[in-house]
Amino acid sequence: MNKVLLGLLLGALLGAIDGGTAWFTPAVRAQLAGIIVGSTVKGLIAGVAAGIFARKVNSVPLGILFGLAVGFVLAFLVAYMQHGYYFEIILPGSIVGMIVGYATQKYGATSTAAPATR
């Protein structure tokens, strides 16, 4: 599976799981569906970014660092818009970014260019 597609699928799955953890915060249970959708979109964005980065740079530590940075920034923006729950939003968002960054570097298939034919 190519790196961008792997990042997209894994980011969506982990983003949905990340959003589902909001159930453990009783004050936000009424908005659970919206949180899951938002976290899934956040995971999709982080996954695509990590996949594109993995195409350009072939380094697992840099992929993890890049995923962490993207996950952190996206989660921080969401937490900033909510005016609270910074730790509860940023920590799992950053972990999702790290996992997707690692997976795209380690398990994503490098695209091979087809030989030119005449």
Give your account of this protein's structure.
The chain has 118 residues and is an all-alpha fold. The chain has one domain. The protein is 75% helix and 0% strand. It has 4 helices and no strands. The radius of gyration is 16 Å and the shape is elongated.
Quick summary:
With 118 residues, this protein is mainly α.
Topology readout:
Blueprint: H1 3-20, H2 32-56, H3 60-82, H4 86-107
Largest sheet: none
Fraction of residues in β-strands: under 5%
Radius of gyration: 16 Å
Secondary-structure-based class equals mainly alpha
Descriptive terms for the model:
single chain; 118 residues; mainly alpha; 4 helices; 75% helix; elongated
